[in-house]
Amino acid sequence: MVLRIIIFLLINFTGLFLGGLFTQEGIPSDWYQNLNKAPWTPPGWLFGFAWTTIMICFSIFLSVLWKKIASIHFIYLYSTLFILNVIWNPLFFYFKWVFIALIVIAFLTYMIGFTANKYKSEMRYYNLLLLPYFIWLIIATSLNTYILIYN
Predict the structure, then answer these.
(1) Domain ranges of the chain
(2) pLDDT computed for residue 86 by the predictor
(3) What CATH number has the domain spanning 2-150?
(4) Which of 21, 87, 108, 119 is the most exposed place for a label (fewest CB within 10 A)?
């Protein structure tokens, strides 16, 4: 199990790194700095803390799920979640396609909820490991929505 956790940590943090390449340039940009942001936008340091926590929990969840269901469906599901998570950053920060980014993050939020629901009998209390991800995505979706509406 430890090896599976390490593998998923490496993959997930690689995804964060890839997305972060666009965030690093995007956050200090004039475009982002001049946006009307939601009053509940968290401070910058919280994003790194949140994503680190989320990816640790998610990696543990994935390692358990992989052991329980190891199938092509798992690979499709995980690939979809990975791609959605990575592409939001360039869509939002590089291309500035706020509406498309909103569709992506809303679908990612749905997919995390779907995953928890689909595997609730197999995963039982391990589903709690998805809670930080799901809550953060709800917050992020609301932030993206606010930016779309008020800019």
Answers:
(1) 2-150
(2) 96
(3) 1.20.1260.100
(4) 21
